[in-house]
Amino acid sequence: MKSNVLMVVRKGEVAMVEQELPPLGPKDVLVKVTKSLVSPGTERAWILGLENTGGGENYPFKIHYAAAMVVQSIGPEVTTLVPGDRVSSYGTGHQTYDVVHEEKLVKIPDGVSDEHAAFGALGYICMQGVRKARLEIGESCAIIGMGPIGQLAMQFSKVSGACPVIALDKDDGRLELALECGADITINTGADNWKEKLSEYDLEKGVAATIESTGFPAAIQSALDITGYFGRVVMLGSTRGDCTINVYRDIHKKGLSVIGAHAFRVPETDNSPASWTCRKELETFMYMLSKNKFEISKLVSLRVESKELVDVFYNRILKWDMDLIGVIVNWV
């Protein structure tokens, strides 16, 4: 069976390519993609082969990210799914069909749209990062970068009990969206002396936790600067470049904990405090979506048909269109 797959064919170039799917293994599931999600910043970085993506090494490759799907057929040892089940995963990319191991698929609850479920992988990436911050009720939390990762991390911080939750970005439009999605405070980091604005909210001694979602070296320095004594800095965004830090001044003297939160470092089988499996994070996100815990619809800034996807990448995503947060691709 063949599938149309969006592939990165060489640095800076994408194309829709027809590929033969592998045969079903005993625990495999054939799925038809209904909606997929483009996270513009991350996918742009991989296509351009930016630092720490691995995108500039082996071509062609597909971007495994986020999608909602319908089960078509199952392997003989699959026990949790049947044809017709709606599922989300943390590995399917932009394509018409895919073969996925049963353990990577989670049922979409009734009442949760395919569009919202397509955020599943992004949800678990953000959830595991916020979980590592070990937020306590009433602690202040700042999130740097209000792209899709930052917007979701802000909402997870809110439901974790952080107060106030501070959204930081250079783009006024993204800050306005953060307010609509529940941020208590917004600060434009492009303004002069923006760090001093924290004193207006009785945070002149720094915030308890900062979640850095951009990966820009300058933002990492800002995260260290605004976090108070004995605070936590969570590195959720993948860094795209080297960062020079005065470790004594910025970390050691302040007693900070700096926590790496790459999604590749979550456990595969057993949960532990602040470190849950991908599957458990995804199941939890789906349950919380069913209880309307998050504002997802506002994070969709563009909806396109699959046949338009290549043009959207060239004309908007690779050109770093700041108006794009989440892009939903329709495959049916």
Summarize this entry quickly.
The chain has helices at 40-47, 114-117, 120-132, 148-159, 172-180, 217-226, 247-252, 278-290, 309-317, and strands spanning 2-10, 13-20, 28-38, 61-62, 66-74, 86-89, 97-101, 105-107, 141-144, 165-169, 185-188, 207-212, 227-235, 257-260, 300-305, 326-330. With 332 residues, the protein is an alpha/beta fold. Helix 6 (217-226) links the parallel strand 12 (207-212) and strand 13.
Describe this structure in words.
The chain is α/β, with parallel strands linked by helices. It has 2 domains: 153 residues, Quinone Oxidoreductase, Chain A, domain 1, CATH 3.90.180; 139 residues, 3-Layer(aba) Sandwich (Rossmann fold), CATH 3.40.50.720. The chain is 25% helix and 28% strand. Strands 3, 5, 6, 7, 8, 15 and 16 form a 7-stranded mixed β-sheet that branches. The protein has a 6-stranded parallel β-sheet with strand order 11-10-9-12-13-14, sandwiched between helices. A 3-stranded antiparallel β-sheet has the order 2-1-4, with helices on one face. Strand 15, helix 9 and strand 16 form a beta-alpha-beta unit. Helix 3 crosses helix 4 and helix 3 crosses helix 8.
Topology readout:
Blueprint: E1 2-10, E2 13-20, E3 28-38, H1 40-47, E4 61-62, E5 66-74, E6 86-89, E7 97-101, E8 105-107, H2 114-117, H3 120-132, E9 141-144, H4 148-159, E10 165-169, H5 172-180, E11 185-188, E12 207-212, H6 217-226, E13 227-235, H7 247-252, E14 257-260, H8 278-290, E15 300-305, H9 309-317, E16 326-330
Parallel strand pairs: 9-10, 9-12, 10-11, 12-13, 13-14, 15-16
Antiparallel strand pairs: 1-2, 1-4, 3-5, 3-7, 3-16, 5-6, 6-8
Helix pairs in contact: 3-4, 3-8
